[in-house]
Amino acid sequence: MMKRVYSTISQLKPNVCIVGSGPAGFYCAQQILKLLPQSTVDIYEKLPVPFGLVRYGVAPDHPEVKNVINTFTKTGDNPRVNFYGNICLGQDISLGDLTNAYHAVVLTYGADNDKKLNIPGEDGKNIISARSFVGWYNGLPEDASLDLSLDCEEATILGQGNVAMDVARILLSPVDQLKSTDITEHSLEKLSTSRIKSVNLVGRRGALQVAFTIKEFREMTKLPHVQTVFRNEQLCGVHEASATLARPRKRLTELILKTSNPDESKSNCSKYFRPIFLRSPTEFKLNDNGAITGINFAVNRLEGPLDNQQALVTEDTELIPSGIAFRSIGYQSRCVDSDIPFNEKSCTVIPKEGEF
Amino acid sequence: MYRNIIKVSRGNVSHIRRIFSPSPPPSHFGLRRNYSNKTDQIKVTFKKHNGELITVSGKEGDSLLDVIVNNNLDFDGFGACEGTLTCSTCHVILKQEDYDKLPNRPTDEELDMLDLAYDLTDTSRLGCQVVLSKDLEGLTVQVPATVNDARSS
């Protein structure tokens, strides 16, 4: 009896299915192939082509970041791996089909819904989701016909993460520089007619809490003809606080302070990048055509210990004029199949023992 | 379709390598001995987080990332950007004396990427930026427990 059990186990060849062929899917496949030498892995992808955000999320002016595609391609070339494109979980195939057919199913389909601000005017014209804008310049099929106008001088990005930085950089980069990248033709055409001169990058908290990383910020400071302008009154006390920080945050803060110094001013600048702190959007101002003209913000103050400061709304407000706005405050996942145990509030899969 | 894209990014690799590769170490660096052809190989030991020691060799001028790739060492996630200074997955930790021995200090760009690595230390370097010289014979570096592929977009 025991013998039979053992022989069954030794003969078991796990068939694993991975839904989503972005970095998570491919890294997961690599580990399964390595740890289970008898296994086979089938990767399902909604789009016809693999690599998810490496292909459609990484900015076109960062081609080196996409080098990881070579490693993923090696994984894909493994005879134990199959790739099935153009198959959408919840539409073409159900979770039940997959759990019946495979020993294990791994969901790595990511988070393709952007979070909303839920403030008045949010559905107005030229209020764009940063995720869609990224998809638009990267050739994601569903964003090819994104309706936006760059016929204004001032743009505002809500959020201070690296996606927000990508959007700012694409808006402010000289078009000639973008021409040499594999950016989509339709976006290049639109960007070449852009009148945008100033891009605001607005966050709820202060300079010590920004989410963007130093590499992206340094890149902005080096963009030709673009001057980075801080509101220097918002940097009060930052220098004193920076002494106590761990190296990564300290170096980023020092670069922010160095950039804010007028001695660092670049000459011949025709465009401006303006990080603005301590503002929470409360309302989009729209004109008679329903298009955005500005954003109302509540002025925040920070409270709490330095390593965990929270933004608290004050009674002060500020209106920032803006002909286009980008919402870049994060993404959330979607429940694509009713059999997935899903927490609709946190937009995450509910973990169960044996399931991750 | 993506074959084309791969070709494009490979083209970029060599381009970017040219820009970012540190200049080769000075040829008279350190004590010069009479090595026969065979001893042109420089021994390097990688210490994994589980204590396992892996000793391999590389040529003068190779980066630690080259050594890892050429010897097919399987360090999870290592070298995702293929040595173009856009990720921190080839993070290694050196002993202070070895760190001090390296002819080039890390550039701002290397420090920017290291700042995103887990287990960052004052003697951390990116493997793609550490170039072997005879002076580094017998070098031992620590491979951190986890790599943080903190590349954004």
UniProtKB/TrEMBL annotation, chain A:
A single GO molecular function, which one?
oxidoreductase activity
Q: Which domain of life is it from?
A: Eukaryota
Q: Does the keyword Mitochondrion apply?
A: yes
Question: Where can this protein be found?
Answer: Mitochondrion
Recorded hits in Gene3D superfamilies, A to Z, give: FAD/NAD(P)-binding domain
- Describe which pathway this protein belongs to, using the record's wording: Steroid metabolism; cholesterol metabolism
Among Pfam families, the record links this protein to: NAD_binding_8 (PF13450)
Q: What is its EC number?
A: 1.18.1.6
Cofactors, names only: FAD
The transmembrane segments are none
State if Transport is listed as a keyword.
Answer: yes
**Reaction catalysed by this enzyme:** 2 reduced [adrenodoxin] + NADP(+) + H(+) = 2 oxidized [adrenodoxin] + NADPH
> Which GO terms of the cellular component aspect does the record hold?
mitochondrion
Keyword set for this entry?
Electron transport, FAD, Flavoprotein, Mitochondrion, NADP, Oxidoreductase, Transit peptide, Transport
Which InterPro entries does this entry report, sorted A to Z?
A: FAD/NAD-bd_sf (IPR036188), Ferredox_Rdtase (IPR055275)
Name the top EC class: oxidoreductase
What family is this protein classified in? Belongs to the ferredoxin--NADP reductase type 1 family.
> Could you tell me which PANTHER family the record lists for this protein?
GLUTAMATE SYNTHASE 1 [NADH], CHLOROPLASTIC-LIKE (PTHR48467:SF1)
Which protein is depicted? NADPH:adrenodoxin oxidoreductase, mitochondrial
The species this protein was found in: Diaphorina citri
What gene is it encoded by? LOC103514046
From TrEMBL, chain B:
Entry GO terms, CC: mitochondrion
Localization (cell): Mitochondrion
Source domain of life is: Eukaryota
Span of domain 2Fe-2S ferredoxin-type: 42-147
Q: What is its main location?
A: mitochondrion
Q: Which GO terms describe its biological process?
A: P450-containing electron transport chain; positive regulation of ecdysteroid biosynthetic process; steroid biosynthetic process
Keyword Iron appears in the UniProt entry? yes
Cite the entry's keywords alphabetically: 2Fe-2S, Electron transport, Iron, Iron-sulfur, Lipid metabolism, Metal-binding, Mitochondrion, Steroid metabolism, Steroidogenesis, Transport
Family per similarity comment: Belongs to the adrenodoxin/putidaredoxin family.
Q: Any idea what job this protein has?
A: Required for ecdysteroidogenesis in the prothoracic gland which is necessary for larval to pupal transition.
Name of the featured protein: Adrenodoxin
Name the species this protein comes from: Diaphorina citri (Asian citrus psyllid)
User: Which gene name does the record give?
Assistant: LOC103506782
